[in-house]
Write a structure and sequence with these properties.
Oligomer: single chain
Shape: rod-shaped
Radius of gyration: 45 Å
Largest sheet: none
């Protein structure tokens, strides 16, 4: 009977050790999983940051191209307007001279 009790105690002790070992292993697995998740999150954040930077660089480049194109268009329009203004100024000066001369001659 004593042997049976000792066997039961030994079996209980062994079961307790197996349970503790299993719990430790489970904690280690959970900790490793958390570390892996954190690593994956950091990698995803890094990739996201890189993609965001690339998108911003492309957007800035496209905006610069558009601005340069508009600038060229407006510079051409300004030249045209200046030319028209100069032509009209010349015509206005000529008209004023004619009227002054005519007024002088008529008087």
């Amino acid at each position: 009977m004593k042997e049976i009790l000792e066997d039961v105690k030994a079996t209980e002790q062994k079961a307790k050790e197996v349970l503790e070992s299993s719990e430790q292993e489970a904690r280690k697995i959970i900790l490793d999983a958390k570390k892996e998740v954190e690593k994956l999150i950091q990698e995803a954040q890094k990739k996201c940051d890189e993609e965001q930077k690339e998108i911003m660089e492309r957007a800035v480049a496209q905006a610069k191209e558009a601005a340069e194109a508009l600038s060229g268009q407006y510079e051409q329009k300004i030249k045209e307007l200046k030319l028209r203004a100069a032509q009209k100024t010349t015509a206005a000066v000529h008209l004023i001279k004619e009227r002054i001369v005519k007024a002088y001659v008529d008087s």
